[in-house]
Amino acid sequence: MQIADVTPILTRDWLHVKVTTDTGITGIGPATFHSQLAATAETVRQFRESLVGRDPLRPDHIWQTFFRASSFRGAAINAALSAIDVALWDIAGKHYGVPVHALLGGRHRDKVRMCALTLGGSIDETIDLVKTAVAEGHTAVKIDPLPSDFPMWTHSRLIQEAVSQVGAVRETVGPDVDICVELHRKMTPGPAVALAQKLEQFDVLFIEDPIQPDSIQSMAEIARQINVPLATGERFNSLYEFREILEAGGANDIKLDVGLQGGFSQCKKIAGLAESYHATVSPHNARGPVLTAAHVQFAAAIPNFLVLEYRHEEHDNMVKEPLKVEDGYITLPDTPGIGIEFDEEAAAKYPYVYPAVNTATRPDGSVAYW
């Protein structure tokens, strides 16, 4: 069996890569460098000629071959290689007639715990989303207590508003639902520490990405000053960044993404590295049903999985039968490959639109974090 074609499928805000073999077996993989999807798509096209004719059943070797082809790194390249890697594992599962998790060492669990993304723009909206999620059976929710106009706030208001929102959510859900606090890299270390210390009272599952991913040392400094688990990593690109953040003590939970950090081939290794530090894995999963299906396979195949974030999107119909969340879990499918069938006809109904650059600014006009 050989790779016959490699095709990027660029849609409204998602990029998938289809790999076709000369036997007719196809695989699909997600690329999640979502701020520059067109750049990733072009990278896939550049790799195509060198991929055609290769053995699709050697995904890790193919990843190494292309990752080491030059000293150039970055999210566009890594996302392209990641999508290709997932597609190759999808092909392998179909070739051998087994789910991908069976090829990754077998399953550790029969179902995968989901974390509902309840990212409201206000306390009231967040509470409504949280109530719906809990009514649907979720035992974990993720909120962002800093709305879009946060750069206009004073330090004291920022802290008070965030604490008020997290407190309102805890009062709503009680002790039997875990709360993940996503800060989306909006803060600097000082305010991040001040906020985290005040959130300790609510027993949150973790605080995610309080600062920009510019400095592993800065993230580790925050971790040393707080008593709340810290999650980070969704903007990392490789095994080596995760090694350094774990060595520095800067993460209790890591945000792996098979569509960015090397597909199954690399993410299984990174999860093993995290396991040696007793760190959990909660994959970054806000990019549609193909990524969800891949992450369900991944979550099943590692012992240190924690939760998988999830939200329904109107264009989930790009997959003919998306995996269903029932009572807060997705039951592991026994379908060969990653367990879903991509619908190119449905995908064509959502054309790609180049995104505008909308960077947050402060009252004085300077650039804020976002």
Explained architecture:
The protein has 370 residues and is an alpha/beta fold. The chain has two domains: 3-101, Enolase-like, N-terminal domain (Enolase-like, domain 1), CATH 3.30.390; 106-337, Alpha-Beta Barrel (TIM Barrel). It contains twelve helices and twelve strands. It has helices at residues 37-51, 59-67, 75-96, 100-103, 123-135, 155-173, 189-199, 216-225, 239-247, 263-275, 289-300, 344-347, and strands at 3-10, 15-21, 26-31, 111-117, 140-143, 178-182, 206-208, 230-232, 253-254, 280-281, 308-310, 329-331. The strands form two sheets. Strands 4, 5, 6, 7, 8, 9, 10, 11 and 12 form a nine-stranded mixed β-sheet that branches. The protein starts with a strand and ends in a 23-residue tail after the last helix. The relative contact order is 0.15. The model has no long low-confidence stretch (mean pLDDT 94).
Write the layout of secondary structure elements.
Elements: E1 3-10, E2 15-21, E3 26-31, H1 37-51, H2 59-67, H3 75-96, H4 100-103, E4 111-117, H5 123-135, E5 140-143, H6 155-173, E6 178-182, H7 189-199, E7 206-208, H8 216-225, E8 230-232, H9 239-247, E9 253-254, H10 263-275, E10 280-281, H11 289-300, E11 308-310, E12 329-331, H12 344-347
Parallel strand pairs: 4-5, 4-11, 5-6, 6-7, 7-8, 8-9, 9-10
Antiparallel strand pairs: 1-2, 2-3, 4-12
